[in-house]
Amino acid sequence: MAFKIHAIPVRPSNRIRESSVDRIFMGALYIGLGLVLLGLLYPMIYVVSASISDPSAVMSGEVVLWPVGFNLNAYETIMNYEQIWVGFANSIYYTVFGTLVNVVMTILAGFALSRMNLVGRNFFMFLFAFTLLFNGGLVPTYLLVHDLGLIDNRMALILPQAISVFNLLITVTYFRTSIPEELMDAARLDGCDDFQSLMKVVLPLSAPIIAVLTLFYAVGNWNQYFSALIYISDPDLQPLQIILRTILIQNQVDLSTMMDVNSYAARVSMIVLLKNALIVVASVPVLILYPFVQKYFVKGIMIGAIKG
Amino acid sequence: MTIADVKSDIQQKDKPIGRFGSRTWSRIRRDWQLYLLLALPLAWLLLFQYYPMYGAQIAFRDYKPGLGILESPWVGLKNFEQFFNSYLFSRVILNTLWLSFYSLAVGFPLPILFALAITQLTGGLYKRSIQMVSYAPNFISTVVMVGIILQFLDIRTGPINILLKALGLDTINFIGLADWFPSIYVWSGAWQFTGFSAIIYIAVLSTVDPTLHEAAVMDGANRLQRIWYVDIPALLPTAMTLLILNMGQILNVGFEKTFLLQNTLNQSASEVISTYVYKVSLAAGIASYSYGAAIGLFNSIIGFILLFLANQISKKITGNSLW
Predict the structure, then answer these.
(1) Which residues of B touch A141 (CB under 8 A)?
(2) B2 torsion bin: left (phi>0), alpha (psi -120 to 50), beta (else)
(3) Region A161-169 average pLDDT
(4) Three-state SS for B122?
(5) Which residues are CB-neighbours of B35 under 8 A, at least 6 positions away?
(6) A236, A262, A268, B229: which sits with the fewest CB atoms below 10 Å from its CB?
(7) How many Å apart are CA A172 and CA B90, to the nearest integer?
(8) What is the pTM of this model?
(9) Average pLDDT by consecutive 10-residue portion of chain B (323 residues)?
(10) End-to-end Cα distance, chain A
């Protein structure tokens, strides 16, 4: 006897077809995100264009998106503008040494606080975390820095902000999850005391957190201006951000650095170009390094967020 | 407990166990190196964070630099009364509150929406480039950001005004109008920080169990429904935590950006608590340290209370809290 087997037709593709509601939704989403992308890029493109355009075109409002004319005088002026380079050098100093202090202090505290069996650990953690909720305020802190003799001293931009408790918490979480007690036990059985464990076992494994901390702190140090505003009045010590503020926002430009500006109109238009060019120059270091380090920042946030 | 702990515990077994007994002391002695590591950061903490809390008492005194903290005369609540009675009090508080709430109303949902939208995209160049570009403005310094704002909104050369002119409309002096200040402040903040703030939400969304989504699709849910029923509940704990943290900051409208965007024309909207403190204490010809300290203390205490309240409310409503 022959059996007739009815074959049930099976759709050959395994993909779930999107319903039309979904397709409209996704289409709108793509377009919406595209607009967001344009909105994000536009101001940055404008600033670059305005910095290399012909000055009179900028002043008469012809420059909207793309450059009109070509003029690099603004960048030439910046090259000769000594105060800007003093600021640059100072910022490099504050960023390098400040970040060094930051990372060392944070790693020291983070490692010690990550050891669960430390007596008083909760107490010390609370001491640190409490400062996130409440602090003395601007005036008492300023008076402290003043009484320590740090006014107009480079250390005023490094010491008061030595540790960010937020970064500390990320570090503690990292050490607790990535350096299990078993590892420390093995090191101890091999005869290491805590110092040696730190140097030989923990630090080599800490590359990710050191990278994340360095980046977070470095960006913070490079961008800081408030501390410099209140603690530093000596022009030789001022970081780049203060110089930027002087030019971009207070409109105080050293005209002796500009060339070919014989008329008032030429001067005014050149200042506009100068400002835009300065924005470009100030952002270039950050935006060049940014694509390379971006994934470390993302990783840092994820370490802090998911586990913390 | 580690092997070393068990070992030393066994050795201590015969010693008396007080609440802070000698077993504890031997553990402290054993860990002396860790305490040494902690010593420097702790010293920093006590000096730069806790000593100013002690110094905040000058809010209750009439501080004179020559006299020092303890010798300056005690005046009780006089500085606080001076603040509450000053004609700028309500303006400064209102400006601060308005900027905070406006920032929160915009800055809280936008990163969530952005994260939800990005997560809908499957990988690829489009998704990655949007993400990369959106993170970038976060790293621009405040000074540069305000510089960009001033150039972009300039009445003569800025694209916005050029566009208005091209459309036959009047140009607007954005920077000089108090009414525009809050919107400029808030929306430029959204431009700068939405992308980066969304990272934490994108991270959470990436941990959502895919079978939940598959089950939803099987039940006939479209994308919007899946977002509502799967994604958003997954984000709720993180969002609530961040919201609580933000509530505690309600009175802390940042000094930096406000100060840079301020000018005499828009001051009626741009003077906030932090800039006012700066003006009366550090920038004044005759610095009123006690007065500034009092306002700052007032600010910190209110912030602490708000944080506490927000935490309790969140515990009641959503079950999530910081402590």
Answers:
(1) 48, 52, 55
(2) beta
(3) 92
(4) coil
(5) A112, B28
(6) A262
(7) 42
(8) 0.85
(9) 60 55 81 88 95 93 88 91 91 92 92 92 86 88 94 90 90 92 95 91 88 88 86 87 77 86 92 91 84 91 84 76 65
(10) 70
Task: Report the distance separating Cα B10 and Cα B15, nearest Å.
Answer: 10
Distance from C-alpha of B58 to C-alpha of A245, rounded to nearest angstrom = 32
Query: Tell me, what DSSP letter sits at residue B61?
Result: B
CB-CB contact of A272 with A191 (8 Å):
no
Structure tokens at B233: 């509940």
Q: DSSP per residue over B69-82, as a string?
A: TTTSPB-TTHHHHH
Q: Does the beta-carbon distance from A134 to B303 stay under 8 Å? A: yes
Six-digit token pair at A191? Answer: 């005869």
B28, B58, B154 ranked by CB distance to A119: nearest = B28
What whole-number distance in Å separates Cα of residue B42 and Cα of residue A16? 58
Each residue of B14-53: b (16+ CB within 10 Å) or e?
eeeeeeeeebeebbeebbeebbebbeebbebbeebbebbb
Q: Which residues are B74's β-sheet partners?
A: B61
Closest to A110 in 3D by CA, of A198, A170, A184, A25: A170
| Averaged pLDDT, A122-131 | 91
* pLDDT reading at A7 higher than 70: no
What gap in Å lies between CA B41 and CA B270, rounded to an integer?
37
Q: What proportion of chain A, given as a percentage, has pLDDT over 90?
A: 41
Is A19 within 8 Å of B274 when comparing Cβ atoms? no
Helix, strand, coil abundance in chain A, percent, nearest 5: 75, 0, 25
Contact status, residue B191 vs residue B137, Cβ threshold 8 Å: yes
Instruction: Provide the token pair at A32.
Output: 């919406």
State which amino acid sits at residue B213. H
Q: Do residues A294 and B134 touch, judged by C-beta distance below 8 A?
A: no
d(CA B273, CA A133): 18
Helix (H) / strand (E) element for A36: namely helix A20-52
Per-residue model confidence as pLDDT tens digits over A61-105: 888 888 888 888 889 889 889 999 999 999 999 999 999 999 999
| Contact assessment for residue B119 and residue B202, using Cβ atoms and an 8 Å cutoff | yes
Query: Are the beta carbons of B151 and A41 separated by less than 8 Å?
Result: no
Task: Kindly report the backbone phi and psi dihedral angles of residue A187, in degrees, each rounded to the nearest multiple of 5, phi listed first.
Answer: -65, -40
Report phi then psi at B61, rounded to 5.
-125, 175
* Residue A50 to residue A275: CA distance in whole angstroms: 9
pLDDT for B42 equals: 95
- Tens of pLDDT, residues A218-238: 989 999 999 999 999 999 999
The band of A46, judged by pLDDT with boundaries at 50, 70 and 90, is very high
Q: Given an 8 Å threshold on Cβ–Cβ distance, is B130 in contact with A193?
A: no
Six-digit token string for A202: 């923990």
- Best B42, B139, B235, B290 residue to mutate vs chain A (most A CBs within 10 Å): B139
ipTM of the complex: 0.84
Cα B62 versus chain centre, distance: 31
* Residue-wise pLDDT tens digits, A240-299: 999 999 999 888 888 777 766 677 778 888 888 899 999 999 988 887 777 777 777 777
CB contact under 8 A, B55 and A140: yes
